[in-house]
Amino acid sequence: MTSAPFGTVLTAMVTPFREDGSVDLDAVKKVAKHLVDNGNDGIVVSGTTGESPTTSTAEDGETLAAVKDAVGDRAVVVAGVGTNDTRHSVELARQAEKVGADGVLLVTPYYNKPSQAGVIEHFRQVVGASSVPVMLYDVPGRTGTKIDLATYEKVRGWDPVVAVKDATGDLARTARLVDLGYAVYSGDDVNTLGYLAYGAVGLVSVVAHAAGKELRAMIEAFRAGDHAEALRIHTALIPAYDAVMGVPNYGATTAKAAMELLGVIDNRVVRSPLVALDDTEVAALRDGLRAAGVLS
Fold it and tell me: What average pLDDT does range 253-260 have in this prediction?
């Protein structure tokens, strides 16, 4: 099995805000420590779940520094630097290296739907802006563009590019990416077991905000050859997958509500255009997490 350069269980971490919408750096540290104490050996900062489309470059740098300070060398810290503006992503990549990120997560440009030649050029400029390892992120449901295998083959020749977070739902393609030399991470919690079967090394999760230990146990059972135990854990977690990922604006909204339910943060404030879960939605989330055994 390909090595896991960024760890095995990474959470795409929420960015906690105060009631006035400003970044709460003390709460950032609390969430980061909670994740590392509960099964995560990697953290992705300022990804989509971190509401990166609404945070400034300065806020991203401050959040990254706070996470690094909180976890030290206990976890790999990856900075999200993907935007639909190459110049902005270059700026974020340089900042991430300066602050001390162990890697960067680089999503396909979204909304403007570049050609594969445009995707390659975007990647080339951002990868060249720093010397830190890169995890590409393929999520066509959000970006409108899927990375072609020919693009993966070309980009893999660049030394810093070592991994892929795959949220395409095309699990069988994982084996092709592994053959190209990529470490593949599932980008969809509920599909993780399937990705592992095709050679993935781990997961970049939302549900691990609440179920990091369980997801780690599932992956470790699979890698040890105990596929029945891995399936048992996966099946037990289905209510949590459904609860966290089953609302229209899942991600930051559900993960922040989960953190509030677990007592890690004291509110579930998100930035517009997201809207925080209402009480009925929080009750459904609570029920799902309890049914999965990750909330008492």
Answer: 98
